[in-house]
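Sequence, please.
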C-alpha cells in the first residue's frame, strides 16, 4: 500500500536552508526563509515573550485540555487589536485559537467549503501554502494577477470579482503581501470592499503580519474596511511573526456573521478543528494572552515591534537610495511593506547570486528584507548589479 506513494518535491526553501548552512563563505547572505532577523542575523525571543513566559511558568496550575477552541482569553484579547475597539464591541465576530496562521487559513477555507464554497479566487503570486491548502481540500482555485509593474493590479482583481460565481470565495492578504510586499491602499480597500459587497462574495482575509508594515493600527485598516462593509467574512490570523513565536504555532480564526448564526457556525469550526488537530498547542497563545492582559508587557511588545519595523524600513530606504542595481529598479522597495520583496531576476541570475556571491534567496526571486543588514546591504546591491548587468 504505502509503496505506491510517489515522492513529493522537497520544500524549496527548506532545501535552501541546507545549502546555506553548507556554504563556508564567511560573507554569505541568507535572504530565504521568512523570519525576522536582527542586524546580527539573529531571530531572538522577544523580551516581552520571555517576561510572559516567566509569569506563565509561575502561575500555570494545570496542563489539562482546553478544548478545540483553545485559549478563549487569547482569542478575545486579540479582538480589539485586529478589529479595533468599536468594532470588537459589536458582537458579530467570534473566534477560536488555531495552530499558527496556517491552521487559521486551513480552518477558514475548510469552513468555507463546508458552507458550499467550491472555488477560491486569489491573486498570484501568493504564499505557496495557500494553493496547497486548496488542493488538499479539493477546492478549485481561480487566480488573478496580484501586481503589475510594482503596483497592485486592480483591473485584474476587478475582473476576477466580476466573473465570480455565487459559490466562489476570495482570499486576500490583509497586509505585508507575501511575497511581493505590494499592498492595497486604503482607497483601494474601500473599492474592493464595495465590490465584494455588491457581488455578495465571501472574503477570506489572511492577516499574518500585522505590525510589520506601517503599524498595528495601519496594517489592520484593510480588514476593518472589508469587515465593516460586507455582511460575512472569515479571517485567519498569525501571531508567529509579530510576537516572534514561529515554532510555538500561534494563530487564530475569526468569523463575522449574523449574531444569531454565530454559535452554529463556530460549532462547525470546532468540529473541523477536532478532525484536523483536535486542539491547538497552548504555550505560545498563553504567552500572547499574558502580554495583552498586562499594560507594561504590551508596551514592551509594541516597542519591540516598532524596532523591527524601523529596521526593515531602514533597509528598504537603503535599497531605494541605490536607485538601480544593474537592470533592477530598487526604488519601489521603499514604499512596499513587510518582510518580503520580489526581485525581477531570472532563475539563472538567482543561481548566479548564490554561486558567485553567496547570496541565497527563494527561486521565485523573493527576498527577506530582514536578512539585509548595514553590514551586508552594499554587497547585496553590488551582487544584484553584477548578475543583472
Ligand atoms: N499566511 C501568510 C501569507 C504567510 O506568509 C504565513 C507564514 N509564512 C502564514 C499565513 C502562516 O503563518 P504561521 O502558520 O507560521 O503562523
Amino acid at each position: 500500500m504505502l509503496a505506491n506513494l510517489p515522492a513529493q518535491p522537497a520544500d524549496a526553501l527548506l532545501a535552501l536552508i541546507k545549502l546555506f548552512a553548507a556554504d563556508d563563505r564567511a560573507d554569505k547572505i541568507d535572504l530565504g526563509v521568512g523570519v525576522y532577523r536582527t542586524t546580527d542575523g539573529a531571530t531572538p525571543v522577544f523580551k516581552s515573550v520571555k517576561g510572559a513566559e516567566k509569569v506563565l511558568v509561575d502561575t500555570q496550575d494545570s496542563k489539562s485540555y482546553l478544548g478545540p477552541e483553545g485559549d478563549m482569553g487569547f482569542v478575545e484579547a486579540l479582538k480589539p487589536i485586529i478589529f479595533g475597539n468599536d468594532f470588537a464591541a459589536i458582537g458579530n465576530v467570534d473566534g477560536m485559537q488555531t495552530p499558527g496562521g496556517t491552521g487559521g487559513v486551513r480552518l477558514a477555507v475548510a469552513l468555507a467549503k463546508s458552507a458550499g464554497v467550491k472555488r477560491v479566487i486569489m491573486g498570484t503570486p501568493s504564499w505557496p501554502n495557500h494553493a496547497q491548502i486548496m488542493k488538499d481540500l479539493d477546492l478549485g482555485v481561480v487566480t488573478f494577477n496580484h501586481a503589475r509593474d510594482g503596483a497592485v493590479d486592480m483591473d485584474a482583481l476587478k475582473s476576477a470579482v466580476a466573473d465570480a460565481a455565487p459559490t466562489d470565495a476570495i482570499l486576500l492578504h490583509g497586509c505585508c503581501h507575501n511575497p511581493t510586499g505590494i499592498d492595497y491602499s486604503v482607497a483601494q480597500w474601500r473599492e474592493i470592499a464595495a465590490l465584494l459587497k455588491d457581488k455578495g462574495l465571501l472574503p477570506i482575509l489572511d492577516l499574518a503580519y500585522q505590525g510589520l508594515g506601517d503599524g498595528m493600527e495601519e496594517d489592520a485598516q484593510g480588514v476593518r474596511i472589508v469587515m465593516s462593509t460586507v455582511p460575512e467574512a472569515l479571517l485567519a490570523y498569525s501571531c508567529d511573526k509579530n510576537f516572534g513565536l514561529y515554532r510555538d504555532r500561534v494563530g487564530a480564526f475569526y468569523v463575522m456573521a449574523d449574531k444569531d448564526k454565530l454559535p452554529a457556525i463556530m460549532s462547525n469550526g470546532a468540529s473541523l478543528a477536532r478532525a484536523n488537530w483536535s486542539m491547538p498547542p497552548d504555550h505560545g497563545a498563553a504567552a500572547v494572552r499574558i502580554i495583552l492582559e498586562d499594560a507594561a508587557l504590551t508596551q514592551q511588545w509594541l516597542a519591540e515591534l516598532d524596532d523591527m519595523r524601523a529596521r526593515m524600513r531602514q533597509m528598504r530606504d537603503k535599497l531605494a537610495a541605490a536607485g538601480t542595481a544593474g537592470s533592477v529598479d530598487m526604488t519601489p522597495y521603499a514604499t512596499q511593506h513587510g518582510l518580503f520583496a520580489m526581485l525581477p531576476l531570472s532563475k539563472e541570475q538567482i543561481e548566479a547570486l548564490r554561486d558567485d556571491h553567496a547570496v541565497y534567496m527563494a527561486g521565485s526571486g523573493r527576498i527577506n528584507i530582514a536578512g539585509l543588514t548595514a553590514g551586508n546591504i552594499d554587497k547585496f546591491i553590488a551582487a544584484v548589479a553584477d548578475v543583472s548587468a
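Residues 295-321 form the longest helix (27 residues).
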